[in-house]
Amino acid sequence: MSLAAYCIICCRRMGTSTPPPKSTTHWRDVRNIIKFTGSLILGGSLFITYEVLALKKSLTLDTQVVEREKMKSYIYVHTVSLDKRENHGITYQARKELHKAVRKVLATSARILQGPFADTFSTIDIEDHECAVWLLLRKSKSDDRAARLQAVQEMSETHHWHDYQYRIIAQACDLRTLIGLARSKDSDLRFFLRPPPLPSLKEDSSIEEELRQLLASLPQTDLDECIQYFTSLALSESSQSLAAQKGGLWCFGGNGLPYAESFGEVPSATVEMFCLEALVKHSEIPTHCDKIEANGGLQLLQKLYQLHKDCPNVQRNIMRILGNMALNEHLHSTIVRSGWVSILVEAIKSHDIMEASHAARTLANLDRETVQDKYQDGVYVLHPQYRTSQPIKADVLFIHGLMGAAFKTWRQQDSDENLTEKVSEDESKYTTCWPKSWLARDCPALRIISVEYDTSLSDWRARCPVERKSIAFRSNELLRKLRAAGVGDRPVIWVSHSMGGLLVKKMLLEASKKPEMSTIINNTRGIIFYSVPHHGSHLAEYSVNIRYLLFPSLEVKELSKDSPALKTLQDDFLEFAKDKNFQVLSFVETLPTYIGSMIKLHVVPLESADLGIGDLIPVDVNHLNICKPKKKDAFLYQRTLQFICDTLAKDLEN
């Protein structure tokens, strides 16, 4: 302003002054013009330099501060200076207009350079290095399924992003993308938000009491006998335990008689297990799953899961409940919102095969983008547990026998070294499940499934005393579950141990009578029997001889040599297998097995293991180890692998 005033005064003086002599006036005018022009140029240069520096300072960001602030997910707003002197005057107005013009130029260039964002993300103010994050997010929500799968794969293979960029994906992606990342092997754990804070327990309440209330809130009528048994057992045991916690079971004149002094206290963990076993059974009923969710069951189970990190049995039962609930697609969004996905991702990456397989089952049931099959309780995919680009061309099913399990039956044979040393994470030295560790590596184009069902030697030890399931009943139950898992859509090989072989025979015979199960028969290529008592077992004979002491279970009774059901099964299946030209390989033990510390039995003799077709190979092991190879290059495993590869040769080539 002072510079402009000075210039005006000079001009006025020049205009009002008397004309001097001609020569003097000429040079004086030149000097005045030079002074005026120089002052104007100098002042303008200083003003422009000042404004440029001020603008540069206002647009220059401390990148370290920005990185730290982005991690906090703050929302940024423009601040106004509190100094009133800066908010008035021509200088302030000029700076404001200049900054507005620069912002328009920057916005225009951003729209030009970031044209691919059109539509949803066209107005997002992002930096160039963040374009990939938002482009992948947009691609993951495409209507094209192939594009969505490609986006998820690219996200899972990205390991160079900043922490806040993973958090952007975690907060902005949809359910479909989140589950896809959870089922991608190399996904970074930062893609998954931690579970939200869990509601605190009610005053004067406990986890055990809330579990009991959840169980009591479920329908108690028109239930299977076994569900009724587990429910009543859990409710009665929890009632006794709660009475003990509150100071007494009975009261006499106001004085409580402590439960611990009367009958003995029921451990809290035991009561929780009773409740969880009952909830597992209830969660097999879709309408009961809705009740569990509506009554806060997902949060309560999560709290219990975190509380019992050192108790695998509790965690597995919780995973079984969650896996059953995931069979109901309308509950998927609720399961995801409750924060279970991050827990499942950590579990599926565990080196514990049982923990990983339970989590893999739940995530597969949540993944409706790449998985059409549904895995019901007791059906576990050992391979592939993640999404894979490897085409799956055939199924291999493992069915355990009496007192077996989906994982422990198929472990590597125990040795002194394995028993004394801690099991290494290196599966080439020891594996707790050779189908998952060895077979999956040798034949990656196979889907490997292991089935689990409850069995017992005696009704004394039956998990559900009112449940007396015959081989026929179990075979129909397993057949239904396996068909729901898509068994029959591809070529199939069955691998069975002991009583599991009888179940396989019965399942195939039953499937042949049902048109909807015909694909299972048509796609069955071969069967491997590990010491299957086709003609009965010495174990059954021993159990029946001391039946008044042992009370043998129905399964054991059906294994006796004089069982009419066993003879009919053998005759019918032999004729059926010959007609269908199934490939068969049988192994049989030659060594006796110790049952407890005093009983020594040759459980399945050579003549009983002979189906009548296929190869029968005696092996110098006992009944328990007939399906447990000592190492990967052992005869048992190599012969099994050869049979699978030879039988499926044409299918694997196609």
TrEMBL record:
Claim: Transcription regulation is one of the keywords in the record: no
Location of this chain's protein in the cell: Endoplasmic reticulum; Mitochondrion membrane
A Gene Ontology biological process in which this protein takes part is: phospholipid biosynthetic process
Domain of life from the UniProt record = Eukaryota
Q: What is its main location?
A: endoplasmic reticulum
GO cellular component entries:
endoplasmic reticulum; mitochondrial membrane
Q: Which UniProt keywords apply?
A: Endoplasmic reticulum, Lipid biosynthesis, Lipid metabolism, Membrane, Mitochondrion, Phospholipid biosynthesis, Phospholipid metabolism, Transmembrane, Transmembrane helix
Q: Which Gene3D superfamilies match?
A: alpha/beta hydrolase (3.40.50.1820), Leucine-rich Repeat Variant (1.25.10.10)
| Tagged with keyword Chloroplast | no
Q: How does it sit in the membrane?
A: Single-pass membrane protein
User: What family does the Swiss-Prot or TrEMBL record give for this protein?
Assistant: Belongs to the SERAC1 family.
Q: What does this protein do?
A: Facilitates the transport of serine from the cytosol to the mitochondria by interacting with and stabilizing Sideroflexin-1 (SFXN1), a mitochondrial serine transporter, playing a fundamental role in the one-carbon cycle responsible for the synthesis of nucleotides needed for mitochondrial DNA replication. Plays an important role in the phosphatidylglycerol (PG) remodeling that is essential for both mitochondrial function and intracellular cholesterol trafficking.
Q: What protein am I looking at?
A: Protein SERAC1
Task: State the organism of origin.
Answer: Balaenoptera musculus
The gene is SERAC1
